[in-house]
Input
Amino acid sequence: MNRHPADIVALVFALIFLGCAATWAGWAHSDLDIDAFAWAVPFVLIGAGVVGVIASLRRQP
Output
């Protein structure tokens, strides 16, 4: 079976989606208000961006 390269764009968007879903789940199932989770969304976006940059740097010849 031949392996194909990973789709980096799909990986980054999946990380963003999972991070936002985890943030929502943490907010919805706790007694804290939304301000307590306001810090999580920027970390999700920064983390997904870092993964995208690292993956793009590894793909250069």
Notes: The chain has a mean pLDDT of 78.
